[in-house]
Specification:
115 residues, mainly beta, five-stranded mixed β-barrel
């Protein structure tokens, strides 16, 4: 979702500061990257972050690079460990890094590691 105003963008950046690590749900794959659902939403909208194919940034030794092949990416609906890498202020997008851990969510706050 594109944020409609500066206050929403400020609030999202406050909730997801740089280098913040969290679990996010994989929603879709695109040729340029994977969209991840953030755990904050409003009545009619969800907020997304993007893990791009080409990742440049912090903690390179801990980052799992997103494969070009969709079949090798985390499964849609699974939860992955993400790091907030940077903000794109000009278009109000949250750019993420994949830390390489994938889970199946078995209950609201219960995660089961995959493979």
């Amino acid at each position: 979702m594109k944020l409609e105003n500066d206050q929403q963008w400020f609030d999202l950046k406050h909730r997801y500061p740089l280098n913040h690590i969290f679990w996010g749900e994989v929603l879709s794959h695109q040729p340029f990257g994977t969209f991840v659902k953030l755990d904050v939403q409003t009545d009619d909208s969800i907020y997304l972050g993007l893990i791009e194919i080409v990742q440049v940034g912090v903690c390179e030794s801990q980052i799992e690079h997103l494969p070009y092949d969709f079949t090798q990416r985390p499964q849609i609906g699974s939860y992955i460990n993400c790091l907030v890498g940077y903000y794109c202020d000009h278009n109000k997008q949250l750019e993420l890094r994949w830390l390489g851990v994938e889970t199946h969510r078995t209950a609201r706050h219960d995660y089961e590691l995959i493979g």
